[in-house]
Specification:
Chain B: This is phosphatidylinositol N-acetylglucosaminyltransferase. The complex is a heterodimer of chains A (315) and B (475). In chain A, 66% of the residues lie in helices and 1% in strands. By secondary structure, chain A is mainly α. A two-stranded antiparallel sheet of chain A has the order 1-2. Chain B has 475 residues and is α/β, with parallel strands linked by helices. Chain B is globular. The N and C termini of chain B lie far apart (55 Å). Classes of the chains: A mainly alpha (315), B alpha/beta (475). Chains A and B meet through helix 1 and helix 2 of A and helix 1, helix 7, strand 8, helix 8 and helix 14 of B.
């Protein structure tokens, strides 16, 4: 049926009020054409008409993911580990500085830890072909670095002779803060496969070198720098493979490191130990809770107004 | 006896192929009737002559049509180099070029206090009733609208583009617009998609947003079938060659189409950072005789380029209302465009075909279009599109918005503080603080430059001028 036909129908003039009323009723009952989302024809609606279909193609939070407390807490353990390791390192430095570090015990424990750590790394790491070539390359690198540190230790001891203690402490704090900020936590959590945090590694090595320059004997310097190499360059690799291998081991390792650091700090300064405890509680348990509380505000809006995404962009 | 008729969308779409119900006002010419009341309107924006573009043309044409309807219109914009002070344009359109530092992307730097004295002075001496700001990225428009609302002058804002939500510059821009529109400012959007986008961005009530489309000067874009080469099917595309305009899609689809249809050729006008990729593609596939790159095409030469073609290609990735496709249809070309933003609302489906923004589908639609464009009558297209979009019609609809605005009651200044409670706890506090400080600033200005001492500006005698023009034309 064509619309033009009905528009041209003619009516007789109505006389009685009843007929007029019936006529008026029919007129108002005649349906309007539905509103269409187009601009090129005149529609029987005002310009600010808002149809039922308004915003019908809007999509909210299509890609947003709700995270659980356990998941977030587990991811935060790598930050706790890093913090504990840095503080452990500084505590060991203070013991060395005050000559209260039992050097022989320290060297023995370190050597055992290095060997054990390396074996664990080989065991936990997936996609690793354990050939003689691989182990030989690892041992070669290890030997070269340690020899270099040993030979440079006497130079490094007198590196900062002209600089005052206060400058060294301030610079160290700054550098280790940078190290904590820019560390590759994605790698430490097993999300990425390549350790890429040159800035944080450089900051840590720089900090440990200037700390080492405050020590008294060459051998101390060598032991300390070997320890810093072990902690900042080698341990991330091990921690990555532990996290990927098993979540329980990760939690166990974090707890062990935390307990060790806490125990050592308590011998120095009880207040600092308590602060450390609360800070770790905040990072490991408080921040996941606040992120979960904020998740309900997540609003990612998509719709036909979005800029289209092209697959192959020429550069 | 009248029957109740079930009218479905299908009926209407089938009807379109036979006869489109056009805008009555354009057909009957009833828009030339004098309006109820004549308003004094100030268009305020950063984008105006001598810079050339879509927004500038929109403001100029709208102002001219409103002047012809009997309103008084002035334009306020920032200075362009040496061009400052007051200039007059066609039919007595007064343009104020106020001193304001210009920012790199043609907009200006945002200020809170600096422009209130001069804007207040202009609004009072011209006895402005309505302030109409254009284009969201124009800082001067925001300032104009804010100042107008504080002075009790009605304000309207026109939004010409689409914005996202999830990057920092979008968030700032959206908050800026939300702040400007706090105090009962009516928003005009150029398409329904723009309206949805604007309502989401600024959390406005959708009943305060009207949809009034753009138009273009169709008399400059007339078809000329003698210009197009009958041996080839020519596909024209005139656009800035940048990422947003989908040049990556063009680079990928041209080889596919050239291979599939032997007598197709491309003419690409425009310049930009991605031009080098088109040249690389021409080299790689040896299409020197099939693809012609024209470089930058001046606005007055665009019709000459368009009439050489049979099909117009638009590969934009985002578009709120594409005026380019109107110009193309006016020159009698069939259009193939990406289905983004407000483009699906602009033309009926016998003039345009849509594709998703990937090169394979666009190439497919282009190949189909090479068949369809043979049946196209360019003069029919020109006549049709002329009856769909018209500046006088847009002026009439804008005037309706002005009528609605003038009927709104004006609240006392202190009550307006209530409007500033939007924007969250801290946002609301900041808004209210800024509002109070601005009120103090206005009070200081009122004391130093009282409005009784401001001389009214002499109006340009538009009526007499238009009558004189008519007489001259008739003689």
């Amino acid at each position: 049926m064509s619309l033009t036909q009905t528009n041209q129908q003619k009516e007789e003039p109505k006389e009685t009020p009843q007929e007029k009323k019936a006529e008026h009723k029919k007129k108002t009952e005649q349906k309007k054409k539905p509103w269409r989302k187009i601009l090129y024809i005149q529609q029987d609606y005002p310009d600010n008409h808002t149809d039922k279909s308004f915003l019908e193609f809007m999509v909210l939070n299509a890609t947003a993911r709700r995270r659980s407390f356990g998941e977030l807490s587990l991811a935060a353990t790598s930050i706790t580990q890093e913090l504990s390791i840095v503080l452990l390192f500084i505590v060991i430095f203070f013991h060395s500085y005050n000559n209260t570090l039992p050097l022989v015990h320290f060297v023995v424990i370190n050597s055992i830890l290095i060997v054990l750590g390396y074996l664990m790394f080989l065991y936990f790491e997936e996609d690793l072909e354990i050939t003689f070539d691989l182990i030989f390359n690892h041992l070669k690198t290890f030997f070269i670095v340690f020899t270099a540190v040993f030979s440079l230790s006497s130079v490094l001891r007198t590196l900062t002779k002209a600089i005052s203690n206060d400058t060294i402490w301030a610079l160290t704090i700054f550098l280790f803060c940078l190290h904590l900020f820019f560390q590759d936590y994605g790698y430490l959590n097993g999300f990425k496969d390549r350790f890429f945090a040159p800035f944080s590694l450089n900051a840590a090595i720089f900090g440990s070198v200037i700390l080492a320059s405050r020590l008294n004997s060459d051998f101390y310097v060598f032991v300390f720098l070997a320890f810093s190499f072990q902690v900042f360059a080698l341990s991330p690799l091990l921690r990555h493979s532990i996290k990927k291998f098993s979540n329980e081991f990760q939690v166990l390792l974090t707890a062990l490191l935390f307990a060790l650091t806490f125990g050592l700090i308590v011998t120095f300064n009880a207040l600092f130990a308590i602060l450390f405890f609360f800070f770790v509680a905040f990072i490991n348990f408080g921040s996941p809770l606040s992120l979960m509380a904020a998740q309900k505000w997540k609003l990612f809006i998509q719709g036909p107004w979005d800029c289209a995404v092209v697959e192959t962009v020429h550069k | 006896m009248k029957q109740e008729i079930e009218i479905t969308l299908e009926d209407i779409e089938n009807e379109e192929l036979v006869q489109i119900p056009k805008r009555k006002s354009i057909l009957t010419g009833k828009y030339l009737k004098k309006p109820k009341k004549s308003y004094r309107i100030a268009m305020i924006t950063d984008f105006f002559y001598p810079s050339v573009g879509g927004v500038e043309t929109h403001i100029f044409q709208l102002s001219q049509c409103l002047i012809k309807r009997g309103h008084k219109v002035i334009v306020i914009t920032h200075q362009y180099g040496d061009r400052n002070g007051i200039r007059f344009m066609t039919n007595g359109l007064k343009v104020y070029y106020i001193p304001k530092l210009r920012a790199p992307d043609k907009s200006s730097f945002p200020t809170v206090w600096n422009n209130t004295p001069i804007l207040r002075d202009i609004f009072l001496r011209e006895r402005i009733m309505i302030v109409h700001g254009h284009q969201e990225i124009s800082v001067l428009a925001h300032e104009g609208v804010l100042n107008a609302r504080e002075l009790g002058i009605k304000a309207v804002f026109t939004e010409h583009s689409l914005f996202g939500f999830n990057e920092i510059h979008y968030i700032l821009v959206n908050k800026g617009l939300m702040y400007s529109l706090l105090d009962g400012v009516h928003l005009i959007c150029v398409s329904n998609t723009t309206k949805e986008n604007a309502v989401l961005r600024t959390a406005l009530s959708p009943y305060l947003v009207s949809v009034i489309p753009n138009a273009t000067d169709f008399s400059r874009f007339t078809p000329d079938p003698t210009q197009s080469d009958p041996n080839w099917i020519t596909i024209v595309s005139i656009t800035r060659l940048m990422y947003r305009k989908g040049v990556d899609l063009m680079v990928d689809l041209i080889p596919i189409v050239c291979r599939a249809v032997p007598n197709v050729r491309f003419i690409i006008g425009g310049d930009g950072p991605k031009r080098v990729f088109i040249e690389m593609m021409i080299e790689k596939y040896d299409l020197q005789d099939r693809v012609k790159l024209l470089g930058f095409v001046k606005h007055e030469n665009v019709p000459k380029v368009l009439v050489q073609g049979n099909i117009f290609l638009n590969t934009s990735l985002t578009e709120s209302f594409c005026i380019a496709i109107l110009e193309a249809v006016s020159c009698g070309l069939y259009v193939v465009a990406t289905k983004v933003g407000g483009v699906p609302e602009v033309l009926p489906n016998y003039m345009i075909s849509f594709a998703k923004p990937n090169p394979e589908e666009l190439a497919q639609k282009l190949i189909e279009a090479t068949e369809k464009c043979k049946d196209v009558d360019p003069y029919f297209f020109h006549k049709e599109v002329r009856e769909m979009y018209d500046w006088h019609d847009i002026a009439e609809r804008t005037e309706k918005v002005y009528d609605d605005m003038m009927l709104q009651p004006e609240r006392p200044l202190f009550e307006k503080l209530r409007y500033h409670s939007r924007g969250g706890t801290w946002g609301a506090l900041l808004n209210k603080l800024i509002f109070m400080l601005r009120l103090i600033w206005l009070f200081i200005l009122e004391v130093c430059f009282p409005r009784e001492q401001i001389h009214y500006a002499v109006d340009f005698p538009t009526d007499k001028f238009l009558k004189m023009k008519k007489k001259k034309l008739n003689n």
